[in-house]
């Protein structure tokens, strides 16, 4: 009996210690929420998001929204109470901190890396779009004006914005299309992070179609709002073909 009481007291003590530890020690997680969207066919502060020299942009309608997420500042140390609400809130997600912020890097280094990735993404997006259109990247200059967005995940939507303005097809059909995905110079679409929260940002800002890397279907399906059509693609030509098929009632890829 004495041993049983000692074991019980020890168990209770461990529970108390673990509880105190969990509520006071920072945990290696961060919160992400739906971020802002930006229309690659529109303008920011009166300046077109996509500026083109050496070719004449065509009038457009509809919107091509790139989507983002917002994450807790990397300097903030989150504890268990900070995370509990998010686990039960569909508009927030708890993710490993290392999946958003590389370990061992300062906030300044992270910002610099995100800016570098964004610049490279813009360059790849322009080359991919101009090659798709059969235009010479040395003769047509494309500049992208979106300084507040970091990372490479807007590449696909930048390319589509260029194709819409310099091609002969209206890609949106007058609707609001959103999406995400990296892109290489040869037009391959790559996976990104935070796709679930990006679908929510898309729906919030009026999108009816959401383009995404094919590998991200499972993550997107679990959280996508009702009324948002998920269209997985692997390349820029697939994305263009899918948008035209939507308008023409053709076969469209689906998650």
Blueprint (SSEs and pairs):
Blueprint: H1 2-24, E1 29-39, E2 43-44, E3 47-48, E4 50-53, E5 63-71, H2 80-87, E6 93-96, H3 107-133, E7 141-144, H4 155-166, E8 176-179, E9 182-183, E10 189-190, H5 195-204, E11 209-213, H6 217-221, E12 229-233, H7 236-248
Parallel strand pairs: 5-8, 8-11, 11-12
Antiparallel strand pairs: 1-5, 1-6, 2-3, 4-7, 9-10
InterPro entries: Lon_proteolytic, Lon_Prtase, Ribosomal_Su5_D2-typ_SF, Ribsml_uS5_D2-typ_fold_subgr
Active site: 153, 198
GO molecular function: ATP binding; ATP-dependent peptidase activity; serine-type endopeptidase activity
Describe, in plain words, how this protein is organized in 3D.
The protein is an alpha/beta fold and 255 residues long. It has helices spanning 2-24, 80-87, 107-133, 155-166, 195-204, 217-221, 236-248; strands at residues 29-39, 43-44, 47-48, 50-53, 63-71, 93-96, 141-144, 176-179, 182-183, 189-190, 209-213, 229-233. The strands form four sheets. It has a six-stranded mixed sheet with strand order 6-1-5-8-11-12. Strands 2-3 form a two-stranded antiparallel ribbon. Strands 4-7 form a two-stranded antiparallel sheet. The radius of gyration is 22 Å and the shape is globular. Residues 7-23 have low confidence and may be disordered.
């Amino acid at each position: 009996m004495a041993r049983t009481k000692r074991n019980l007291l020890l168990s209770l003590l461990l529970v108390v210690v673990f509880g105190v530890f969990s509520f006071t020690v920072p945990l290696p997680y961060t919160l992400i929420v739906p971020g802002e969207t930006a229309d690659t066919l529109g303008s920011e502060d009166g300046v077109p998001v996509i500026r083109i020299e050496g070719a004449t942009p065509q009038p457009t309608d509809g919107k091509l929204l790139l989507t983002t997420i917002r994450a807790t500042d990397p300097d903030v140390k989150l504890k268990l109470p900070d995370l509990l609400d998010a686990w039960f809130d569909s508009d927030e997600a708890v993710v490993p901190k290392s999946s958003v912020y590389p370990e061992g890097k300062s906030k300044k280094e992270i910002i610099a890396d995100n800016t570098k990735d964004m610049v490279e993404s813009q360059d790849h997006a322009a080359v991919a779009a101009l090659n798709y259109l059969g235009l010479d990247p040395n003769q047509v200059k494309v500049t992208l004006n979106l300084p507040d967005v970091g990372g490479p995940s807007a590449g696909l939507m930048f390319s589509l914005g260029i194709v819409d303005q310099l091609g002969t097809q209206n890609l949106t059909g007058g609707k609001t299309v959103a999406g995400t995905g990296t892109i290489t110079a040869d037009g391959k679409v790559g996976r990104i992070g935070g796709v679930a929260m990006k679908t929510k940002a898309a729906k919030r800002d009026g999108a009816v179609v959401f383009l995404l890397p094919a590998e991200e279907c499972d993550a997107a399906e679990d959280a996508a709002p009702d009324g948002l059509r998920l269209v997985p693609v692997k390349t820029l030509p697939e994305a263009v073909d899918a948008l035209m098929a939507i308008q023409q009632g053709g076969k469209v890829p689906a998650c």
